[in-house]
Design a protein that fits this description.
Elements lengths: L1 H10 L5 H8 L3 H10 L1 H6 L1 H10 L2 H20 L4 H15 L2 H12 L5 H18 L2 H10 L1 H22 L23 H10 L4 H30 L3 H29 L3 H21 L6 H15 L4 H7 L7 H28 L10 H7 L1 H14 L14
């Protein structure tokens, strides 16, 4: 449930774009920056998140983080100007930044190594339920009580979830008097400094960072910030209608997360399914940018957006790819580096899209399909970077292959 809150905030910006522009009198570049404000602290906190998960433990880390996210959501809801809105979004990003890596740490303790792909996919599936809530349901909620009260309510719910997390979650089976599932042979006490050095200097760590970066960054930029404005401007839809199309991306990502994790564990391969899904994802973007002139049927767009989400889900394997080439006891740090790539790319992409749009022929903040396609070329570039990096990933055969 904490991860549902994470995904809700990740993609909520696109739904309230016009409300923010009207309330704070901001430009599209400033709106792009607002969307990115979530990702800057999230990206910077990935290494500290791994350290906290490995030392303080996931239970305490997530509980404190989600309370902080709730406070940030309340700040945003009551923001008198764009500066306070930025502060609120930054606080949210800081708070939720610790949740996913902590969840992966728990998965590494409560499940066997050959179950990690499936459980990562299931985690992504559940988390994306938050992305669904942040689309059409959020449109309905904002229409009913306004965007300020909507985010204030989410802030209150976040605090409740943080309390429940602290009551229910345990870091490892031993905390409940159960036998450990994962036994780490080396009993020497872990050193944070040594762990960072080992993981950072391991050349096998970094291909997963870039492979995650372009795939995740591009789908989140579209699904979370620019997909709704695209459908409103190009197809003349209402915000509610447009949000249903970005929901198709989310549904595809949810289903794909379950499929790719299961395929990977059953095949005993990481790189092969990751590459296969990502190549098709590139093809979907090529069709979207070069075949779609902005007047294709809405039925076709439903299918295209669903496939965009489905095939982007290969990125869930990047966490396993990073974890399985590093020492098991540093699972938090190694998965956090792979995860950091996605949020670095997402933070960079969104303001660039806003900047390119503002340089185009937009009248009154409404842009043509040509303007959007030009802006979305940045997504195509980062996807190609990811594909190149993918082929540098070391195949682990779903086992930890780290050796001194």
């Amino acid at each position: 449930m904490a991860y549902v809150i994470v995904f809700f905030h990740r993609v909520a910006a696109g739904v309230v774009r016009q409300e923010l522009i009207n309330s704070f009198n901001i430009t599209d570049v400033e709106f792009g920056n607002f969307g990115a404000m979530y990702f800057y602290p999230y990206m910077l906190m990935q290494i500290p998140s791994g350290i906290l998960a490995d030392t303080l433990g996931a239970r305490k880390t997530v509980s404190v983080g989600i309370i902080l996210a709730g406070i940030g959501s309340l700040i945003f809801g009551f923001a008198p100007n764009i500066t306070f809105a930025y502060i609120g979004r930054l606080t949210v990003g800081l708070g939720v930044s610790v949740v996913f890596i902590s969840t992966l740490k728990i998965l590494s303790q409560w499940f066997k190594p050959d179950e990690f792909g499936r459980m990562s996919g299931l985690t992504s599936f559940i988390g994306n339920g938050g992305a669904l809530l942040a689309q059409y349901p959020l449109v309905v909620l904002v229409a009913a009580i306004g965007w300020r009260k909507s985010f204030s309510v989410i802030g209150g719910i976040s605090v409740i979830i943080a309390i429940v997390t602290y009551i229910l979650v345990r870091n490892k089976p031993e905390d409940l008097g159960l036998d450990p599932i994962v036994i780490i042979k080396e009993k020497k006490k872990s050193s944070i400094k040594d762990g960072l050095k080992i993981v950072f200097t391991n050349p096998r760590t970094w291909p997963a960072f870039f492979a995650m970066g372009g795939i995740f960054g591009s789908v989140i930029a579209f699904m979370g910030t620019w997909g709704v404005p695209y459908m409103i401007d190009v197809y003349g839809l209402t915000k509610g209608e447009a949000s249903i199309f970005t929901m198709m991306v989310t549904l595809g990502l949810m289903i794909g997360s379950l499929i790719v994790g299961n395929i990977s564990d059953r095949l005993g391969k990481r790189r092969l399914p990751f590459a296969a899904f990502s190549i098709v994802y590139l093809v979907v973007w090529i069709v979207f940018l070069f075949v779609n002139p902005g007047n294709m049927s809405l039925g076709f767009m439903y299918v295209l957006f669903f496939l965009m989400g489905l095939t982007s889900s290969g990125f869930v394997l990047s966490w396993a790819c990073g974890k399985e080439v590093n020492p098991e006891k540093y699972a938090g740090v190694s998965t956090s580096i792979a995860n950091m790539g996605g949020f670095l790319f997402a933070a960079i992409i969104q303001p660039i899209i806003g900047f390119v749009l503002e340089q185009s022929d937009g009248a009154g903040g409404v842009y043509s399909v040509e303007a959007y396609n030009k802006a979305f070329m940045v997504c195509l570039v980062v996807i190609i970077i990811s594909l190149v990096s993918l082929f540098l990933i070391k195949e682990t055969n779903c086992k930890n292959i780290y050796s001194e």
